[in-house]
Amino acid sequence: MQDQHIASAYDRDLEALQALIIKMGGMVEAAIRDAAEALTNRDTELADKVRKGDKAIDALDDKVNEEAARVIALRAPVSKDLRMILAIIRFAAAMERIGDYAKNLAKRVGTLSELRPVDGTDATLRRMARDVEIMLRDLIDAFIRRDAALAADVIARDADIDQTYNSLFREFLTHMMEDPRNITPCMHLHFIAKNTERMGDLVTNMAEQVIYLATGQRPEEDRVKKDQTPYMTAPE
Amino acid sequence: MQDQHIASAYDRDLEALQALIIKMGGMVEAAIRDAAEALTNRDTELADKVRKGDKAIDALDDKVNEEAARVIALRAPVSKDLRMILAIIRFAAAMERIGDYAKNLAKRVGTLSELRPVDGTDATLRRMARDVEIMLRDLIDAFIRRDAALAADVIARDADIDQTYNSLFREFLTHMMEDPRNITPCMHLHFIAKNTERMGDLVTNMAEQVIYLATGQRPEEDRVKKDQTPYMTAPE
User: Fold this and answer.
1) Which residues of A touch B65 (CB under 8 A)?
2) Is the pLDDT of residue B141 over 60?
3) What CATH class does B2-231 carry?
4) Which residue in the set B83, B114, B230 is minimally distant from A104, CB to CB?
5) pLDDT lower than 70: segments of chain A
6) Is the distance from CB of A17 to CB of A144 less than 8 angstroms?
7) What is the average pLDDT value for chain B, to the nearest integer?
8) Which residues belong to any copy of the PhoU domain (chains A, B) (predicted)?
9) Can you give the pLDDT at residue B122?
10) Which of A28, A109, A171, B168 supports an S-S bond with A47, CB 3.0-4.6 Å?
């Protein structure tokens, strides 16, 4: 009976920890969505909301770390449970960083609202952000259900994000060469594109962890890094 | 007697874990140093060495994670020891990312070697990388000695890195406006500057953890983010 009580309290601890990370995921999804909308509409008020909201995401990261340490110290988890707790700590760190990227995007909205728009790139950035947001939502679902197939699908979608980023990089170079007035806005828009691409990478890392949690196997190392921009130069 | 044996094996486990992270730090320091040297001399051979060497850093990150999980499962550490192990897991993640940034820098050396140099920026980038490398070395020392004062000093130095990055951002904008042939090299050099600035941030995060380990207190939250570029536009 005593044992059962202990087991239940332990289960509740694990569930509470899982609930924290799910909540954090929802907040980060909202941050990406709001930041992208603020960018599209050059809505500085919404951008401000995203910037201020990042504090709550950071606080949740701290809370996950504290709770995880508490559960480890109190319950001495092993094997599967321990793997889950350590994965949750890493998820919190990744989500905190995605939140930072959304905040950084939001910070640039004010500056961009005073600069000329750059043809066509806004819609592409919006779509990229939307895709990453859905990847993150599916990643969280995959984690809840320990669904390795969905996690693998999330990883596969990151290649599209990388491709879009590569095209944008070339587009920005072209716009800047064509008209120097595009240089400053393109520098900021490029930051946003790169940070969005990094969000995709972070979601991919989490998805790899979910596969490990679900199957005990690390995913194949055949994923080639698709950011080709280190090798790119401007079209002649 | 039995207890003493267990305690000693436990201590050896903790020391081995600490030795792993110190080793990883040394490898990452070398990667920063070599990448910066490869950039300065447009030395594609050295750049290649950095790119290939990143696999060993990644492998060490995996090893730290496995060892940490093993020690937690086997020894059920609490309080100070547990905090140290969880900090080491985070250090490994941060160092893995610094290694990635060094690799990314190295990837651009080949492209940059085919582009025109941009006046004055190489020396500044080299100095930034050197400063980050020394920050990392001191951070590791601060961790080994649980030296909160040294860790605080590391954090203070990050403000200089941020300042240098802000100046470089403006310089790149100016060079690009002046001559469109500077656009492509400046885009790549700017990446390198931003990634170096991020390395500094990651070292700073680790230094904050060292202060927490040494004092049990989180450092004051008065550190203002010094990257001012989200608000910057080109000089008129």
Assistant:
1) 86
2) yes
3) mainly alpha
4) B230
5) 1-7, 220-226, 234-236
6) no
7) 93
8) 21-109, 125-210
9) 93
10) A109
* Nearest by Cα to B127 from B88, B89, B86, B163: B163
Whether A230 sits inside 8 A of B89 (CB atoms) is no
Q: Which helix (H) or strand (E) holds A93?
A: helix A79-113
pLDDT at B223 over 60: no
Candidates B86, B114, B115; nearest CB to A69: B86
The structural domains of chain A, with segments of one domain joined by +, span 2-231
The partner residue sitting opposite B108, judged by closest CB among A108, A184, A230, is: A230
Q: Which pLDDT score, from 0 to 100, does residue B3 have?
A: 55
What pLDDT was estimated at residue A226? Answer: 66
Q: Give B38-53 pLDDT, tens digit per residue.
A: 999 999 999 999 999 9
Query: What is the nearest CA distance from A177 to chain B, expressed in angstroms?
Result: 6
Instruction: Judge contact between B164 and B124, C-beta under 8 A.
Output: yes
Q: Tell me the helices (H) and strands (E) count for chain A, helix number first.
A: 6, 0
Q: Would you call B187 an interface residue with chain A, using a CB distance cutoff of 8 Å?
A: yes
The answer to whether B82 contacts A68, with C-beta atoms less than 8 Å apart, is: no
User: Could you say which of A76, A169, A231 has the minimum Cβ distance to residue B76?
Assistant: A76
Rounded Cα distance, B37 and A221, in Å: 30
Is there a contact between B108 and A79 if contact means CB atoms under 8 Å apart?
no
- Name the nearest CA neighbour of B62 among B100, B89, B26: B89
Residues 164-183, chain B: which have Cβ within 8 Å of A?
169, 172-173, 176-177, 180, 183
Question: What does B177-228 look like in DSSP terms, one character per residue?
Answer: HH-GGGHHHHHHHHHHHHHHHHHHHHHHHHHHHHHHHHHSSPPPS-------
What pLDDT, on a 0 to 100 scale, did the predictor assign at position B231?
Answer: 82
Look at residue B229 and tell me whether its pLDDT is greater than 70: yes
How far apart are alpha carbons B143 and B209 in whole angstroms? Answer: 9
| Chain A touched by B65 (CB under 8 Å) | yes
Best mutation site among A187, A206, A208 for testing chain B: the one with the most B CBs within 10 Å?
A: A187
